[in-house]
Design a protein that fits this description.
Elements: E1 3-5, H1 64-93, E2 98-100, E3 103-106, E4 149-171, E5 176-183, E6 188-193, E7 202-207, E8 215-223, E9 232-241
């Protein structure tokens, strides 16, 4: 069974797991900020020239034009990559064959959240609304950060012959270990199991041949102890035709 993921876009969000707050204690208004710090390196002190030696000619400095061109090239590359990432996010959000969950339950939720409360299972319904990698109450989070096996069960408005599932991970990415579809008779079908390669704010994308049955349920199992800190899911899209 083939899967595909969006690792090519992860370099645009260079917020690491630890800096993004996924390993930190939650706060009521957590929004996934990041920070970096460090002391500046001391300036190099040139060694004195020998007294008898003639003064050395100053080393030629790199032409300013060359440095400027390199910086401009790096900025252009970054902008193009960011644009491609944004276009791909927009393409997924507006996929005519895709639908976002309308209901959700979970094995647990942070602070035992219910309904539309922050980090509740219902926060994984609807289109993505977490904009930055990190701890954010607009995503579902289990009760504890490293408790082990947890699951998220989502329902969708329209049963379809599914061909793809897109899981938008927004904190502690990489903890998903299994994805199942549930048919209209309540039978579970394993569509993927393995090592989740997702990093940063990104989708774990699982593709497979269209199912012979119709489904409007996706169950996602995580091993939260695999990735230290909080593991959160922003949204899950089910792709298929009726």
């Amino acid at each position: 069974m083939r899967r595909y993921f969006m690792a090519s876009f992860s370099a645009l969000l260079l917020l690491t797991l630890w800096a993004a707050g996924c390993s930190q204690k939650k706060t009521p208004e957590a929004a996934g900020a990041s920070s970096t710090s460090g002391a500046p390196a001391p300036a190099a002190t040139p060694a004195p020239a020998p007294a008898a030696a003639p003064p050395a000619a100053p080393a030629a400095a790199p032409p300013a034009a060359t440095a400027d061109a390199g910086q401009a090239s790096a900025e252009t590359t970054a902008k193009m990559a960011a644009a491609q990432w944004a276009l791909r996010q927009d393409e997924i959000k507006n996929d005519a064959d895709g639908q976002w969950a309308t209901g959700a339950t979970a094995s647990s939720s942070y602070n035992d959240a219910q309904g539309d409360a922050s980090w509740s299972a219902m926060q994984a319904t609807g289109a993505p609304n977490v904009d930055h990698y990190g701890d954010d109450g607009h995503a579902w989070a289990p009760k504890t950060p490293d408790g082990g096996i947890e699951w998220l069960d989502l329902t969708y408005a329209k049963p379809v012959h599914a061909s793809e599932v897109r899981i938008r991970e927004s904190c502690g990415s990489g903890a998903v270990i299994k994805v199942e579809l549930v048919d209209d008779l309540g039978t579970s079908h394993l569509i993927w199991q393995g090592n989740d390669p997702t990093t940063e704010l990104n989708y774990l994308i699982i593709k497979f041949p269209p199912t012979s049955y119709k489904t409007n349920r996706v169950k996602i199992t995580l091993a939260t102890n695999v990735i230290p800190g909080w593991d959160e899911i922003d949204a899950v899209q089910l792709v298929g035709k009726g």
